[in-house]
Amino acid sequence: MATKFMVKVEQLYADRNLSSCYDFVDQSCLVVLTHLSPMSKQRECPDECKERYGNSIEPYVNPEFVNDLKADPPTKAIKLQMMQEIAMQYGIMWNSKSLETKMYTPSVVQPPK
Q1: In this structure, is residue 90 part of a structural domain?
Q2: What InterPro entries would the database entry show (predicted)?
Q3: If you placed Cys at 92, which of 85, 86, 87, 98 could pair as Cys (CB 3.0 to 4.6 Å)?
Q4: pLDDT at position 113 over 70
Q5: Interatomic CA distance for residues 54 and 94, integer angstroms
Q6: Which domain, by its residues, includes 78?
């Protein structure tokens, strides 16, 4: 059962990161839209845009945006924190100690006989 929840938490984590990326793209589009008129009249990038994006956007891509796009799974600590937040949000009394112990205790694999 705990494994099923862990998979769901991993998916929620990925969905939140992707949503954050969409928000960033949306905000970036709004900035371009509001500065489109001055940008089209100038040969050089406006100072406001240079401060935010630099002369070439590629080397200055928001590191948080890049990190959110990575497919790295969340750490055990992040999974536990998210599960605790979900439990609190829905008013579920949940003690995570047994799951924490299970997650952080290396499983002993018996050698085949």
Answers
A1: yes
A2: Ist1 (IPR005061), IST1-like (IPR042277)
A3: 87
A4: no
A5: 48
A6: 2-104
How many domains would you assign to the chain? 1
For tokens 């100690």, the residue is 97
Which helix (H) or strand (E) segment holds residue 11: the answer is helix 2-41
H or E segment and range at residue 55: none
Q: Which structure tokens are listed for 19? A: 């949503």
Single out the residue of 30, 18, 25 nearest to residue 67, CA to CA. Answer: 18
Residue 54: pLDDT over 60:
no
Distance between CA atoms of 56 and 108, rounded to whole angstroms? 52
Would you report the helix, strand and coil content of the chain in percent, each value rounded to 5?
70, 0, 30
Instruction: Quickly state the pLDDT bin for 10 (edges 50, 70, 90).
Output: very high
Give CA–CA dist 17/32, Å, rounded: 23
* Residue 8 within a domain: yes
Given the structure tokens 């001055």, which residue do they identify? 38
Give the pLDDT confidence of 74-94 residue by residue, as tens digits.
999 999 999 999 999 999 998
Nearest one of 76, 89, 74 to 17, comparing CA atoms: 74
What is the residue type of 103?
Answer: M
Residue corresponding to tokens 């929840």: 5
